[in-house]
Amino acid sequence: MDSSALFSMQDLPNGVLYTVPGVISELKKYKDPRLKYWDEFIEVKEPSQEFIDTIEKASASSGDDLRLSPVDKSVLALAIETESTVLTDDYSIQNLAKILKISFRGVGMKEIDEVINWTYKCTGCRKEWDKNYPDCPICGSPLKSVRSRKR
Ligand SMILES: [Zn+2]
What we know:
Ribonuclease_PIN, NOB1
């Protein structure tokens, strides 16, 4: 489960639910009163480095890298390690799960049904780049990530 799944708490499956320490810290930051009940049915576990590495590589090549926090990545890494289904409403997490063939489920929202490719579009000259540069190599304006139109 990522934090979006924990926040919505709807429709959670029975059985062991895992999350990473980072998600728990995020929730503690918001002082969510439900936190004390979650202890009973959530197992908090840090994924092994080899699975983090797998996620790092995959997210760099899919373009999801910038949209995923280290916590998001560890949620995915833990899902591979524990062979669990990822519960998340975050589209970038779902996207990478899809690419890596990790099963996932939306909690409050509908899941994505196709892989999204991200490209970087210049806010000045509108050129699209496959890579995220600090600024546009042509005109120097900032780039923003957009869904690729390529299929
Ligand atoms: Zn430009």
